[in-house]
Write a structure and sequence with these properties.
With 318 residues, the protein is mostly helical. It has one domain. 69% of the residues lie in helices and 2% in strands. The protein has a two-stranded antiparallel sheet. Helix 6 packs antiparallel against helix 13. The longest helix has 28 residues.
């Protein structure tokens, strides 16, 4: 059977190849699943404290994945890999995902998704730290996208809730930086990286929940409990694992292109199931952000192929 075009894995010294179908499936997973998790987070907040529920989410998901991998014979990470995984887990999940959770106490799920849609814009900028500056068309996309961010922050819920807007901007920037930096670190391979990052982030969330005095006695309704289960099974185990696969195998702009689709999916679920409404300024901001992200993604550079003579180090992969 004829095989389609392939992507080259950035961290493998043998330049292992990944079929396009695997990349497409991973992209569709983060596009649709993560687009729906914004509304799931909003439902979960109706029954759980904002720091305790992500702690439960990531500890359960990370623990289940870690146990499954060890039973299959996957070796345990080294202390060095655990440390790097914990660091990236804090950036992506504690700050990145945690900022979204805190912001959604005050703003709708679709607007939160639109703010997070700026991740590819930040990723294109941060990639320049390692010499991969945006192309000309991508600079135009950056300008248009950040213009949308300005419009988004001037009207609607964000104007009334500046702390939520700030949390989401920090969340998007931190997620992008962590994604770019992770490609240069000696992280555990494959799914083990996902498991370690979720376990580390879950432990940090749990400690923060206890330190801030959140009550651990609660009685969640059916919506909140179902949302938590969905976030564990789909948002964490399925979605985050697919994302780790992408950032290890394709360019930063393509790996973060889920942000182009997530707001549309979140908008659909927010209106259909969450009763959310939008202003004209919100609609304009969404259009500008998505146009900017589209330009970033359309002109993304191919992921660099590692040189054959280099030693098998993840630090040389980017």
């Amino acid at each position: 059977m004829q095989r389609g075009p392939e992507f080259h894995v950035n961290f493998s010294p043998t330049a292992a190849k990944v079929p396009t179908l695997a990349v497409v499936i991973a992209l569709l997973t983060v596009y649709v699943v993560w687009g729906s998790t914004y509304l799931a987070i909003r439902f979960a907040l109706q029954g759980y404290p904002p720091l305790f529920f992500p702690a439960l989410r990531f500890l359960v998901a990370g623990g289940a994945l870690y146990a499954a991998l060890r039973l299959r014979g996957v070796p345990a990470p080294s202390l060095r890999q655990w440390g790097y995984a914990a660091l990236i887990g804090v950036l992506l999940l504690n700050v990145g995902n945690g900022g979204v959770v805190l912001a959604e106490r005050d703003v709708g799920s679709a607007l939160a998704a639109t703010a997070v849609a700026t991740v590819p814009l930040w990723a294109a900028l941060f990639a320049g730290f390692w010499g991969h500056w945006p192309a000309r068309a991508q600079w135009l996309g950056l300008a248009i996208g950040f213009a949308g961010v300005v419009v988004l922050n001037l009207g609607g819920d964000f104007a009334a809730q500046p702390q939520a807007a700030l949390a989401l901007m920090i969340s998007a920037a931190t997620w992008a930086f962590g994604s770019i930096w992770s490609k240069r670190l000696d992280l555990p391979q494959g799914l083990m990286s996902s498991a370690c990052q979720m376990l580390a982030a879950g432990a940090v969330f749990l400690g923060a929940s206890r330190a801030t005095g959140e009550p651990w006695t609660f009685y969640p309704n059916a919506h909140a409990f179902g949302a938590l289960l969905y976030l564990i099974a789909f948002g964490s185990l399925l979605g985050f694992t697919a994302y780790i696969f992408l950032i290890q195998n394709v360019s930063p702009a393509l790996a973060t292109s889920y942000a182009y689709v997530n707001p549309v999916v979140a908008l659909f679920f927010g209106v259909a199931l969450g009763g959310e409404r939008f202003t004209l300024a919100d609609d304009l901001a969404i259009a500008l952000v998505l146009l900017g992200v589209a330009l970033i993604v359309a002109y993304h550079p191919a992921a660099p192929r590692p040189a054959a003579e280099k030693t098998p180090s993840c630090d040389q992969a980017c």
